Amino acid sequence: MQQVTLSFEKLKSTLERVIYQPHPEIHIGNLLIPTEKRVSGRSTLFVAHTAKIDVTADVTLREWCMIGHEAEIWTHSHEHGVAPINMPTLRFQEECPNVFTTFEPKVIEQDVWIYKASILKGCTFIAEGSVIATGAVVTKPIMEPYGIWAGVPARRIGTRTRVL
Fold first, then answer.
1. What are φ and ψ of residue 101, in 5° steps?
2. Strand partners, 108
3. How far apart (Å, rounded) are the C-alpha atoms in residues 129 and 146?
4. I need a labelling partner for 4 at 20 to 30 A (CA). Which of 38, 46, 100, 122 fits?
């Protein structure tokens, strides 16, 4: 049987590459991952080394999650509508960072698969067993478990079966 989950050493090495903190001067979150549940000394996660996880706010990954290549998880957003029209947006961000930037912690429940080049932005919760299709952009919380989501913006296109 092929091992897909990462050893804790490989997971740690990968997370050092994929964790992204674009605004450490404003807000720093944490990446919360399962460390006690193991299978043959391995973690219960797979995170591709080309993924990007913004930890400006907290990100919680539960057991048996897979985050694919070039997938992006964003925990902050810029509110462009609040900048005055007589001030450049970038200047407004530098002078008023807590007004311009909002932070959204993410919780990704167990057995979630986030495929290649998917983006999680604006959602705060991904329910157990969800599948996010390649290239999907998730902009709202996914509260119903075992859904298959695809598109821009992502919409539910199917349901996984719970029984093999």
1. -110, 130
2. 61, 126
3. 4
4. 122
